[in-house]
């Protein structure tokens, strides 16, 4: 979308005006048929445009989107007007990265910092429709909040993998995936993210999930959640036979939802297998862990 926005600007057209002209409504998310209009306006190839946008999957009522040829649930790839970015990458490379469009990427591995989702000068959330890629609506350049920090190695491997998968770089994706927990092998970005969430959301058993699984949570909290989840998943994969203990911190509603509504079969099978392992190990009469989300069949009782 950034591309379309800059094209409008280069022609002296306001974002809202351009969207009206094309008959598009970004608030509801764009669908595949809108791509044709955008491609026409940009004089670009429709497939190329399609690959760079988060598009709604029409047959599933907006719960799923497609981004760069990957199927992701809308929680993982939101279609809001908000944006997040790395000001240093924008300064050096001059373009926004596709993986920033997903919740799976809360940080920049190149500059070892969290991505920025609000302007350091005026405090407002960063919006798609802004005067320039690097410039806030208040007129100032975006600045990183913290520089010179470092990211956990698990998180760096994760960021590298997500970026490579979304860019279609199979070689880099394969080598990065070797540094991820074995349980995530062959999963899609959507499945892997939700699996890591299931293992990382709870700081400790019984901690409130809403503090972390909320759209306005800080990106450093998302980074910490991912690191936690990746570490716990490595433990599960390494254990000689699986221990019940490994499931102590699992947020079961997310894992159950992944088993029942996966982006791809491989994700659903992995989640269902973990739930089966848990169920088999669990002594009867133990208290129920987690609560069953709405509309879901009870997988563990
Ligand atoms: Zn960066
Ligand atoms: Zn500002």
User: What is the helical fraction, as a range of percent?
Assistant: 40-55%
Our count of helices gives 11
Spans of at least 5 consecutive residues with low confidence? 291-296
Distance between the ends = 45 Å
Count of beta strands: 6
Bound molecules: zinc ion
**What's the overall geometry?**
globular
Mean pLDDT: 86
Q: Could you describe the largest sheet, including whether it forms a barrel? A: 4 strands, mixed
Run of helices and strands? HHEHHEEEHEEHHHHHH
Total count of domains = 3
Q: Structural class of the secondary elements?
A: mainly alpha
Q: What is the gyration radius calculated from CA atoms? A: 20 Å
As laid out across the biggest beta sheet, the strand order is 1-2-3-4
Strand content: 5-15%
Q: Can you put this structure into words, describing what you see?
A:
The chain has 301 residues and is mainly α. It folds into three domains: 2-73, no CATH class; 83-151, no CATH class; 167-281, no CATH class. The chain has eleven helices and six strands. It has helices spanning 2-10, 15-21, 32-42, 46-51, 87-93, 153-167, 170-177, 189-200, 219-238, 252-260, 265-281; strands at residues 30-31, 54-56, 64-67, 70-73, 107-108, 113-114. The strands form two sheets. A four-stranded mixed sheet has the order 1-2-3-4. It has a two-stranded antiparallel ribbon with strand order 5-6. A hairpin with a 2-residue loop joins β3 and β4. The longest helix has 20 residues, at 219-238. It is globular and about 65 Å long. Bound molecules: zinc ion (ZN) (2 copies).
How would you summarize this macromolecular structure in one to three sentences?
This protein is mostly helical and 301 residues long.
